Amino acid sequence: MEAKLGSQPSLVWRSIWSARTILKEGLRWRVGDGNEIKIWGSKWLTSPTSYAVQSPVKVLQEDTKVEELIDTQKGEWDEAKTREIFVTEETEIILSMPLSGRGTKDRLVWGPSHKGLFSVRSAYFLQLELRGRNQGESSLEEKRDDRWNRMWDLKVPGVTKLFIWRVANNLLPTKENLYKRKVIEEKMCPLCDAEEETIMHALWECPAANNLWGNNESCVKKWARFELNFMTLWEKFMDRLTKDQLEEMVVLLRKVWLRRNDWVFEKRMACPKNSFSATKAALHEFRVSQLVSNQNKMVHKTDTERVKWEKLERGFVKVNWDAYLDLKRKKTGIGIMIRDEQGEAMVTVCDQKLNVVEAAVAESYALRKAVEFVSRVKNMAAHSLAKKALVMEGEQVWIEEVPGFIVGCLKNDKDVTQEDE
Length: 421
Known about the structure:
Layout: H1 11-18, H2 20-26, E1 27-30, E2 70-71, E3 76-77, H3 79-85, H4 88-95, E4 107-110, H5 120-134, H6 139-144, H7 147-152, H8 158-168, H9 175-180, H10 199-205, H11 207-213, H12 230-240, H13 243-266, H14 272-305, E5 318-326, E6 331-339, E7 345-354, H15 359-378, H16 380-389, H17 407-420
Helix pairs in contact: 3-4, 8-13, 10-11, 13-14
């Protein structure tokens, strides 16, 4: 990451080197044992957009590693030390971050992906975000701008949503865009040959597009055909059209583009009236399929709720676990039930965990606790010995005899073995 470009770099190395900005922005640390991560200067928090500690350096040295904040005996954050060093907001973030119970190593992950794995798609969206920051877009303006949310919330096929997103970002291969990239030498509209083919011209202003928008069935028949950019037009769509009309419009916009492509590549043009009827039929079919899909999910959920106990094979146990998250108190309750092959309760556990703010983390804590207890159930004798060793002084060995506190465990194991035979 710190390599120099050099005086005469190859095209490949120049391309790799120029991507460092994106990599530095997207790479973040996932805390394991904390040996590799600096508290100040490294990206290891879950708080956007810096992902780095903003609290001033105090108590510890500036180059101190995250391991100094971890209670290694408990495998948890040292809450007292954390609250002493960081501001309240960062303290809550740190304490809510789960730690591995096995002391795994720290590792770098790709932050823009939920799985932590790099993908070209996530890097592309990160690049767009960085470009927006450089252009001076404030976070407050982004929150107020619900135009993008309205696009993705439309009840239309995914391919149509992606098309509208590409239109809004000027990513269609119009003649103007191809000309800018030096793919072609002229940028006139292939349909009217009167204007340069921008996105707005192709979809809204071209006479070929107006053959469709001027149709009697069009909800924008009397609208003006000049707009500075698509987002301005989109705002008018949002203000003047109903939800159903808006969904019909985005499908029709894609139809306009497909009609243009049919002419460019196959020299044929679909009838505007047929486009309206095809659009209405396609939307109706999509909505029906979505309704059927949701009904099937409800049926599946009902069937799942009716699942009853099934007898297990001999020697197996069944473990049920769950977690209940109280976001207000940042606290999760954990419930575990372990039963034998007859359905009889072997272990019942109620526990709680503080500083939890995500449902997935709460469920993970419950699962980890359940696995711990399964190991104890299947190995109760050794577990009892290990527990007793904590209160003994020095090593104790029993030859051809056993201590009284594990007699019951051994008897249970022997009974199960005899049943299996």
